[in-house]
């Protein structure tokens, strides 16, 4: 496969993505959590208040060996291996099927020591990927857990390949030094149905359109799960893996200090996290997002993508191009080239920190993007590894003017004859001084503030001038409750809670800030954690 990947590979998305039909998917505004601890029941730290989640006896009881809350990457892989290992498993899933989770729409996982890597003589060893990711984390994650989860990623990939779920090993998109990303060839039910069928063939059961509400505890030990369907699923082991908190505005504000437009499933609303906190669990410290590497969204965005994965307004793509970006007062806040090179990891974190940001350009830049394209305009720099693919988001002449007028009418774009007018329109008091300094750097070819690569330095000097306002968006969240190196939930004294495990992105002990720069890390670690937690339970 050549470096010129198709669009879905670069995005890291399946075709279902944010266009998928069904409740709780992107295109809907983020919804506050309706389950678990109510917002008013959360303390100042976001932890469950002493009153906790009310216990309501179910009208029906199901008995099993392991109750799993959530049928995403971690939940399905855990259920598959546990069922194959002879355990009676019940999977509780809020959606109408397993094909509505972020796992069903993501592009594909990173992994090591897989069949596909061996076939292409591109094997990534456990030591290689662990060293890269552990070094990237700078000691901020549970290193033992990171290695344990990564050690099971190859097993997870090979298991899915054996089930007939097609994948291909894609190029090293962001230049991290190895090919870890396995891109799914099937979307939605095409990738989940074989897993679900195998689980059911081994005696597993799914409760769809059913939310977990509370971990049933007896004397400090997990004994089952209370659901909103009036069913108590009783089990000596509970695994929580509900997909994070992308659909919970209150939790976003608490942990990210801003709301984030969810490009993934809003059914992942922090319910699982709140259930574990209510059972005595504790927050971990790292919170991050899987940023929008397709560009950005505006305050007016309702549905971000067309069927061929263009932005619905083409002027949302400038976030990828490495031009002049400012914060809400009009000051630069990062080397914009870092965002252009790592839009999913660095770009997501940078926009979170700014809360909202502005891309400023002059007419030369604006016209070049529509005619030459950004990569050609910058001289096709080889050092910009993602550059050829970023050109997919050039503004086209046929849509440029209409989309600009739409953006202006919606209040997130301005076209003006002077920088002063733009500064006034968006209340950016430092903008004029910022542009003056930036133009000096461009003329000298040296960024004296942030050391941005010279090929991204294009002066802002030819009227008319343009500004575009962007707000944070993400495919999913990283960060949640604290677990030990065996994925057991721990309390505030770091003691394991008997019978309670947390996998996927509901646990915050294996995910770094910012998101890892090797693509597919979130779902890769989720799959690895699912396989690993199953091994831990089977070996107990």
TrEMBL record:
<keyword id="KW-0560">Oxidoreductase</keyword>
<feature type="signal peptide">
    <location>
        <begin position="1"/>
        <end position="20"/>
    </location>
</feature>
<dbReference type="Pfam" id="PF00890">
    <property type="entry name" value="FAD_binding_2"/>
</dbReference>
<keyword id="KW-0274">FAD</keyword>
<dbReference type="InterPro" id="IPR006311">
    <property type="entry name" value="TAT_signal"/>
</dbReference>
<dbReference type="GO" id="GO:0033765">
    <property type="term" value="F:steroid dehydrogenase activity, acting on the CH-CH group of donors"/>
</dbReference>
<dbReference type="InterPro" id="IPR027477">
    <property type="entry name" value="Succ_DH/fumarate_Rdtase_cat_sf"/>
</dbReference>
<keyword id="KW-0732">Signal</keyword>
<dbReference type="InterPro" id="IPR050315">
    <property type="entry name" value="FAD-oxidoreductase_2"/>
</dbReference>
<dbReference type="InterPro" id="IPR036188">
    <property type="entry name" value="FAD/NAD-bd_sf"/>
</dbReference>
<feature type="domain" description="FAD-dependent oxidoreductase 2 FAD-binding">
    <location>
        <begin position="65"/>
        <end position="511"/>
    </location>
</feature>
<protein>
    <recommendedName>
        <fullName>FAD-dependent oxidoreductase 2 FAD-binding domain-containing protein</fullName>
    </recommendedName>
</protein>
<keyword id="KW-0285">Flavoprotein</keyword>
<dbReference type="InterPro" id="IPR003953">
    <property type="entry name" value="FAD-dep_OxRdtase_2_FAD-bd"/>
</dbReference>
């Amino acid at each position: 496969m050549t470096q010129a990947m198709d669009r879905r590979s670069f995005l890291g998305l399946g075709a279902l993505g944010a266009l998928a039909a069904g409740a709780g998917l992107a295109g809907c505004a983020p919804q506050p959590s309706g389950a678990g601890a109510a917002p008013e029941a959360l303390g100042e730290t976001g932890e469950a208040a002493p009153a906790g989640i009310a216990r309501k006896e179910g009208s029906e009881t199901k008995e099993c060996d392991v109750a799993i809350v959530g049928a995403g990457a971690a939940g399905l892989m855990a259920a598959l291996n546990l069922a194959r290992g002879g355990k009676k498993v019940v999977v509780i899933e809020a959606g109408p099927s397993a094909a509505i989770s972020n796992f069903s729409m993501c592009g594909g996982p990173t992994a090591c020591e897989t069949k596909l890597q061996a076939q292409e003589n591109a094997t990534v060893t456990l030591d290689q990927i662990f060293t890269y990711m552990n070094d990237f984390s700078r000691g901020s994650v549970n290193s033992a857990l990171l290695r344990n989860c990564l050690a099971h990623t190859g097993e997870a990939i090979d298991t899915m390949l054996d089930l007939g779920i097609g994948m291909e090993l894609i190029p090293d998109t962001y230049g991290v030094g190895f090919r870890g990303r396995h891109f799914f060839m099937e979307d939605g039910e095409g990738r989940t149905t074989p897993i679900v069928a195998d689980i059911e063939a081994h005696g597993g059961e799914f409760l769809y359109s059913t939310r977990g509400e509370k971990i049933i505890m007896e004397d400090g030990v997990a004994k089952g799960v209370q659901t909103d369907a009036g069913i108590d699923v009783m089990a000596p082991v509970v695994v929580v893996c509900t997909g994070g908190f992308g659909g919970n505005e209150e939790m976003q504000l608490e942990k990210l200090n801003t709301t984030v437009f969810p490009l993934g499933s809003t059914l992942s609303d922090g319910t699982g996290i709140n259930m574990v906190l209510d059972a005595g669990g504790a927050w971990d410290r790292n919170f991050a997002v899987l940023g929008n590497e397709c560009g950005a969204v505006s305050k007016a965005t309702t549905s971000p993508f067309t069927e061929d994965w263009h932005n619905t307004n083409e002027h949302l793509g400038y976030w990828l191009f490495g031009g002049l970006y400012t914060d809400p007062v009009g000051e630069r806040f990062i080397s914009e080239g870092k965002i252009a090179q790592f839009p999913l990891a660095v770009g997501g974190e940078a926009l979170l920190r700014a809360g909202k940001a502005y891309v400023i350009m002059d007419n030369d830049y604006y016209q070049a993007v529509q005619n030459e394209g950004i990569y050609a305009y910058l001289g096709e720099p080889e050092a910009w590894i993602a550059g050829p693919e970023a050109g997919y988001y050039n503004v086209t002449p046929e849509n440029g003017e209409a989309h600009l007028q739409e953006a202006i009418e919606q209040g997130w774009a301005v076209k003006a004859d002077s920088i002063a007018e733009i500064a006034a329109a968006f209340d950016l008091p430092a903008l004029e001084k910022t542009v003056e300094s930036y133009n000096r750097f461009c003329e000298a070819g040296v960024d004296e503030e942030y050391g941005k690569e010279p090929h991204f330095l294009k002066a802002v000097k030819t009227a008319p001038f343009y500004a575009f306002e962007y707000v944070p968006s993400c495919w999913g969240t990283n960060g949640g409750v604290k677990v030990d190196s065996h994925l057991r939930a721990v309390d505030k004294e770091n003691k394991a809670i008997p019978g309670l495990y947390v996998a996927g992105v509901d646990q915050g002990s294996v995910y770094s800030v910012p998101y890892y720069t090797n693509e597919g890390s979130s779902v890769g670690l989720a799959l690895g954690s699912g396989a690993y937690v199953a091994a831990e339970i089977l070996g107990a």
